[in-house]
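Researcher: Quick test of sequence recovery. Tokens follow.
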């Protein structure tokens, strides 16, 4: 019963139903008994994420801190709670706290050989260092995810490739940025995932605009079509915004008027 409620909370969170996700997570926690820390850590994850999405960030962080203090079970449960805590910090723009939490997560998962969570820790650190303009450190952490892509979550690899391409672009390494974007498309194709391939096209359009390749950007965005991005993705701007930038970059009167 509790596991089903957690599943509903996850679906509701990723479909923008924050209040419903919150209630489902609370129901799951009410139905859990002692010794069920594994399922509880999942319920706490979506409880915290839904609380943040509902404007209750402080409540989410307090609950996670308490759960971590009470946590005496498996390292997998602790890792999940630390990852969630770091996500909430990132969403709140508290990058120093996110970096500290991610480093804690990195050490814990290396010691416990938790490959999936270890890659998420590198992903978080790559994002924080990219935001701080510490580009060499960002490249290091994103490359660590990509190098271990067969032991990482798909979303972590996808976003690491996007972050890596943008970090290369910021370093003035245009060729490497383009090659990394191509690797993103190849990665999605190898997964036989059309939705993710379309997301890759949208990112290629975004990168092309940054490289002042307006015609290429327009082509990529036509391929992308209209779609929503599943899962956490920190480096892809809203597709409507990318299209508006592309129209403004074209410069002709009709495009500029449409872009505005």
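Model:
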């Amino acid at each position: 019963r509790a596991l089903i409620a957690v599943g509903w909370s996850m679906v509701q969170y990723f479909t923008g139903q924050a209040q419903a996700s919150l209630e489902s997570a609370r129901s799951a926690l009410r139905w859990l008994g002692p010794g069920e820390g594994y399922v509880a850590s999942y319920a706490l994850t979506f409880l915290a994420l839904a609380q943040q999405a509902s404007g209750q960030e402080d409540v989410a962080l307090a609950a996670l801190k308490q759960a971590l203090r009470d946590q005496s079970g498996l390292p997998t449960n602790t890792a999940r709670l630390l990852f969630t805590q770091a996500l909430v910090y990132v969403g709140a723009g508290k990058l120093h706290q996110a970096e500290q939490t991610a480093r804690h997560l990195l050490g814990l998962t290396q010691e416990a050989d938790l490959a999936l969570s270890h890659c998420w820790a590198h992903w978080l650190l790559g994002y924080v260092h990219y935001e701080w303009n510490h580009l060499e450190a960002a490249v290091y952490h994103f490359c660590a995810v990509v190098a271990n892509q067969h032991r990482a979550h798909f979303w972590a690899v996808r976003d690491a490739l996007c972050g890596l391409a943008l970090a290369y672009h910021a370093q003035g390494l245009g060729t490497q940025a383009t090659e990394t974007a191509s690797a993103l498309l190849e990665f999605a194709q190898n997964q036989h995932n059309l939705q993710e391939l379309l997301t890759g096209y949208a990112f290629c359009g975004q990168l092309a605009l940054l490289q002042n390749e307006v015609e290429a950007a327009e082509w990529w965005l036509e391929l992308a079509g209209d779609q929503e991005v599943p899962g956490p993705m920190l480096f892809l701007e809203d597709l409507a915004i990318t299209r508006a930038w592309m129209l403004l970059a074209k410069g002709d009167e009709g495009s500029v008027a449409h872009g505005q």
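The longest helix spans residues 95-112.
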